[in-house]
């Protein structure tokens, strides 16, 4: 009865269009009240504050701010200009640039929509000029944007690490393997499917041309090196690295590139505050829900039921991936992580994977979910940039969905890949 009331009220509220953060909090409170668990209800307000009163979670607003500064401050523009000349001999050059630049941008911003807006906003008009179909351009930008949360550092990795009580550093280190796998798969797909739209650039560039582009993009290229190098070298924590990213991006964009005005800065800070508040509200409201589930041993009950249904770990891993992809069609990344992590963590032993590997599987799934209608944030952003319809983009995105799901299965089922990833972490 308790489980039915808890999840029944949650999905009813979601079906009625209630925001996920409010749904989590109300579902937990209603279940506590009607099942007579008033001792939990009395402590709910305290749990809301203690959940977000966490030094590690400060990384989330800082990474959001850093991503917004990069998008408006000319950093993404210079990355693309540099990759244009470096990748000039590659067929489908602009589509490859979209993927590679998204990987670099994602290594700093940690956000999918920010990556699509910053990189797609520059590459999409150029691809349209080259004759790429409008819907294809939107699909390329949206799929490349999925690298934003898979390439470390990543806001969802911070959320998962806090929820699962894991090391953020290990999550960041292990995340490179699936991130690079996805980037390579997308690049290969674009080389094959886009070569007819964007021929090889046969312009004869001199060494001076390369040097000028490199010099112009040097500070932008150094940004992920400084941020990630500082984390891995133990110079600063992931939370401190987010603050360093903000200061670095602000100095480079305003003092060196002269792209920021007070009006733009005000907009950047306002957008960052709103985005961070939305994320942290969901994190706070998920606390009583997860706490109540754990206190009432709900994850154990669900795990025992799952083990009774699926005795084969390979089948269970596949079912978990399908469920996560399904949730990604309707919920955003942070919500899914906060909802499923307490339930899936006890299954790690049976599945034969570590909590870090489980976290990466969840994050890759939720990232793919951001290009899976109807809750496809990346598609909405990309369609807005290109002027496409969601229906048209949805048809073109199917190929990229299949490719990314194939990479997910490789990471999930091939122990050598998973082991190498964890060895890195």
Secondary-structure blueprint:
Layout lengths: L1 H14 L4 H15 L3 H5 L1 H9 L6 H14 L2 H12 L6 H17 L2 H19 L3 H12 L1 H4 L4 H10 L3 H27 L12 H26 L5 H19 L5 H34 L2 H12 L3 H16 L4 H12 L3 H4 L3 H15 L7 H10 L3 H24 L1 H10 L1
Round the Cα radius of gyration to an integer and report it: 22 Å
Shape from CA axes? globular
Counting DSSP E segments of at least 2 residues, the number of strands comes to: 0
Low-confidence stretches: none
Please give the count of helices.
Answer: 23
Secondary-structure-derived class: mainly alpha
Can you summarize the main beta sheet?
A: none
**Multimeric state:** single chain
- Ends distance: 41 Å
Q: What pattern of helices and strands is seen along the backbone?
A: HHHHHHHHHHHHHHHHHHHHHHH
- Which percent range describes the beta-strand content? under 5%
Percent helix range: over 70%
Mean pLDDT: 83
């Amino acid at each position: 009865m308790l489980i039915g009331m808890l999840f029944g009220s949650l999905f009813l509220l979601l079906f009625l269009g209630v925001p996920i953060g409010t749904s989590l909090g109300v579902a937990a409170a209603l279940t506590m009240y009607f099942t007579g668990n008033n001792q939990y209800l009395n402590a709910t307000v305290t749990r809301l504050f203690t959940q977000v009163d966490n030094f590690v979670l400060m990384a989330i607003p800082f990474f959001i701010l850093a991503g917004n500064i990069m998008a408006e401050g000319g950093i993404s523009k210079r990355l693309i200009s540099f990759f244009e000349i470096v990748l000039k001999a590659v067929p489908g050059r602009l589509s490859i640039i979209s993927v590679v630049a998204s990987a670099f941008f994602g290594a700093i911003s940690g956000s999918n929509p920010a990556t699509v807006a910053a990189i797609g906003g520059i590459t999409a008009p150029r691809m349209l000029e080259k004759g790429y179909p409008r819907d294809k351009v939107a699909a390329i930008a949206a799929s490349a944007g999925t690298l934003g949360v898979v390439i470390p550092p990543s806001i969802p990795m911070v959320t998962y690490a806090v929820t699962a009580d894991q090391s953020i550093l290990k999550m960041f280190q292990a995340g490179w393997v699936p991130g690079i796998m996805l980037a390579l798969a997308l690049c290969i797909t674009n080389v094959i499917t886009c070569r007819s739209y964007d021929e090889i650039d046969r312009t004869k560039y001199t060494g001076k041309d390369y040097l000028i582009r490199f010099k112009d993009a040097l500070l932008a290229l150094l940004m992920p090196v400084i941020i990630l190098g500082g984390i891995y070298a133990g110079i600063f924590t992931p939370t401190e690295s987010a603050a360093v990213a903000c200061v670095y991006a602000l100095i480079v964009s305003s003092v060196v590139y002269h792209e920021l005005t007070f009006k733009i800065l005000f907009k950047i800070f306002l957008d960052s505050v709103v985005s961070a508040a939305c994320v942290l509200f969901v994190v706070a409201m998920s606390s009583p829900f997860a706490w109540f589930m754990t206190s009432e041993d709900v994850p154990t009950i669900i795990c025992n039921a799952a083990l009774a249904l699926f005795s084969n770990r390979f089948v269970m891993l596949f079912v978990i991936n399908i469920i996560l992809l399904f949730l990604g069609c309707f919920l955003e990344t942070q919500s899914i992580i906060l909802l499923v992590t307490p339930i899936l963590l006890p299954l790690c032993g049976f599945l034969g994977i570590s909590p870090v590997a489980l976290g990466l599987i969840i994050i890759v799934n939720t990232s793919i979910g951001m290009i899976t209608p109807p809750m496809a944030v990346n598609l909405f952003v990309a369609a807005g940039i290109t002027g496409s319809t969601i229906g048209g983009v949805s048809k073109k995105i199917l190929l990229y969905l299949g490719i990314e799901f194939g990479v997910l299965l490789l990471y999930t089922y091939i122990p050598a890949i998973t082991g190498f990833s964890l060895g890195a972490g």
